[in-house]
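re: that complex we talked abt at group meeting.

here r the seqs, copy pasted straight from the sheet so there may be weird spacing, ignore it
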Amino acid sequence: MDGPWVNLAEQLGADLHLDLAGPGSRRAVLIRALREAIRTQRFPPGTKLPPYRSVAADLGLARNTVADAYAELVAEGWLMAKQGSGTRVAERAEPLAIATTTLTSAVAARPLIHDLRQGLPDASAFPRSAWLAAARRAITQAPNEAFGPGDPRGRIELRVALTEYLARARGVRTSPDRIVICSGFAHALRVLFPAVLRGPVAVESYQLAFHRLILAAAGVATVALPLDEEGAQVAGLTDRPDVSTVLLTPAHQFPLGGPLAAHRRAAVVDRARAGGGLLIEDDYDGEFRYDRQPVGAVQGLDPDHVLYIGSVSKSLSPALRLGWMVLPERLVDAALGAKGQREAWAGVTDQLTLAELITSGDYDRHIRRTRQRYRRRRDHLVQSLAERVPHVVPAGIAAGLHTVLRLPAGTEDAALDAATRAGIELDGLAAFRHPDAGVGPAADGLVVGYAAPPDLGYRGAVDALCTTLASVR
Amino acid sequence: MDGPWVNLAEQLGADLHLDLAGPGSRRAVLIRALREAIRTQRFPPGTKLPPYRSVAADLGLARNTVADAYAELVAEGWLMAKQGSGTRVAERAEPLAIATTTLTSAVAARPLIHDLRQGLPDASAFPRSAWLAAARRAITQAPNEAFGPGDPRGRIELRVALTEYLARARGVRTSPDRIVICSGFAHALRVLFPAVLRGPVAVESYQLAFHRLILAAAGVATVALPLDEEGAQVAGLTDRPDVSTVLLTPAHQFPLGGPLAAHRRAAVVDRARAGGGLLIEDDYDGEFRYDRQPVGAVQGLDPDHVLYIGSVSKSLSPALRLGWMVLPERLVDAALGAKGQREAWAGVTDQLTLAELITSGDYDRHIRRTRQRYRRRRDHLVQSLAERVPHVVPAGIAAGLHTVLRLPAGTEDAALDAATRAGIELDGLAAFRHPDAGVGPAADGLVVGYAAPPDLGYRGAVDALCTTLASVR
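got the structure back, here u go
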């Protein structure tokens, strides 16, 4: 069985090519074809499969598609992967019964071709080399106690690096002992409510629904603030003295896109100061601004009345689960107590590596590079829309990794249906609307993330989007 | 200011050596001396400090002690560290006010010399090279989608590797899609209660208090099971049909040390089967068994009625925050729902790296090596006790990273006080006793972890412990 590998393209060629041209994800088709060939013993146990790259070349597939298909079949027990000796059909040809059904249905449920979901950076842009180089330096140099039980605030190296970085890049004023490392924004909300802060909380009338759901699960009611071209209308809170906490995305309103106007930034801070309140600042994509200097964090205006939360989910990868809270001093102990000394927070290796990545300047270089890349993508999207569907005007394009396409009233559902048929995954504006929000000027629309597809797939995705939009005008 | 560094030993020598000989941690003394020298401008802004190793050599300190002191002072703003150009006194000689007070008190509160706490592996044994090599292979080879939003169950590579490893090393029978990656045991408990499982839960009458506290915070009552030399007396549950879930440490009762007897393993599974119940198996140190083959997991007896939880907290480091639940199929979806798709779980780089570490065999090699090391430590402890305090008999020494030293009735508090005076940190048995537990045969005792100190410090720690025990007899 150690001979040359079976030639997939030859063995499955005709059928497979035919299938790959049809509907459904190419990965799912490949998995199905391979599984069938193994089950029917067309590929008997021990058969050596070709490496990803040759299958990819033979069948005209992305290498990752083949890699994913192999991984799935390894997980299901059909294939065995062994370092150095490639991938083979499993010797016991009897796959794990449970795995097969579950994973098959998971695959079948994902006929996704064009990923235009908001909130995701380009996974292929993760700076693997820089990350590994930083990890090598950081892990080699770390003191032994780094691998001990650890500081519940997070590694001192990372908190020091963030203090300097956030001051420089985002205008955040803090010190390392007011930073608490967490897994990201959702984790921060769960830590803070209800143990540290109480509701009701004022939120923007358009926001990520799962933030509201986390608050609701903690028994915290939300009050929707109307939005206009200057951002959230915080003045509306004058008759709500019971609302002491406000949760905003001041640098780049999510999802509508504008920055909070300067006088409103001042107003929300003044209100917090006067009433002992707090602004929770969700700085989810503050690094990605295309028109001018980044809009600084509101936190810099008053570190004692703003709780700033950021993460690497947009700048590096959401899969790192690495974020930070910058807390007013009076809340630090309560937040640490609520978080728990042994509870989930980021692993020490990632913390040390990010600290080194920041200190070495590689983090800045990566952000500059991806900012340029996303800017080019944004420009291509804006230009394509102008040429092919000029009635669709993108909004909120000065920053971030997404844009909002306003649609004629009543057409959002039809546009989403058409997108789904075209294999495009994205969300409509309705998905972000607070249940108490009046249906405002931005009532119908699509939220288009332009960062997620790999470079090779991006133009095709925009093309499919334009075709779809033209069909529902 | 780019000249040679200030010679610390010369400048601070006499005072410092004097102080270092006195009470309190050496790190705290060094920090205090350095801070004083900077504050009084004896070391003016820009002064270059010598590298760790030369300070360590000059002053007779561990290199990590010096590194920690530098890191603390960087955090406080007294020093600046810059890659490649060493550590200097900060240019703006005005340190961060908040940092100073907080960190100073944190340092003052830690005059720890001998760390004999249970539950901690030797932080200096973390396999940095093997980890970095695995990280390089894993991160280089990972498909792009690894850096996308991710699978809430955790990376498929890790779940596949764990399926194979847990079967081989612990007798666990599962498939990758019944594994959910989490941050460790505490995280698993928080995910499971109250969303997936209901109380009351039967627990061992000696256990980690924070497990009980997590359950209590979730509104879950616990019922204490008495312990004898065969482990938890599960038969006592016959008159408690309301208790359907049992939480045990079957491989190595924590903290008393014995394995659960075979007939009791069978009984707890039979009970779960008969009543639709569940055993939660906390396999916290199953890899470390010294007398014979590891005691296999109870999960292997009935994967549908045992929920198995493990982690790398003992085998690699608690700072990785990396663990796994092996779930009965019927609970998988509920656990994933409770965990949340965006909530804290381990970062993808650690997941991929651990998968590669396991697949390559380096994880097994590391465990074999540390097992030998801990076994030697255990032997040294047992022998020292026999020679110097023969009336103190260690229990539960066939496995794990700790032992229990039974003490004459009524002497635990005095022993703990004496240990604190001798600079030894450890816990008494009372800290692990369930409030409803009858005070049994093991009423007074110390729980001695023998893994935490670095190799160089271990013999001194055992020596101090023996001296302390001799003084309280």
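couple things i noticed - The two ends of chain B are 59 Å apart (CA to CA). The mean pLDDT of chain B is 86.
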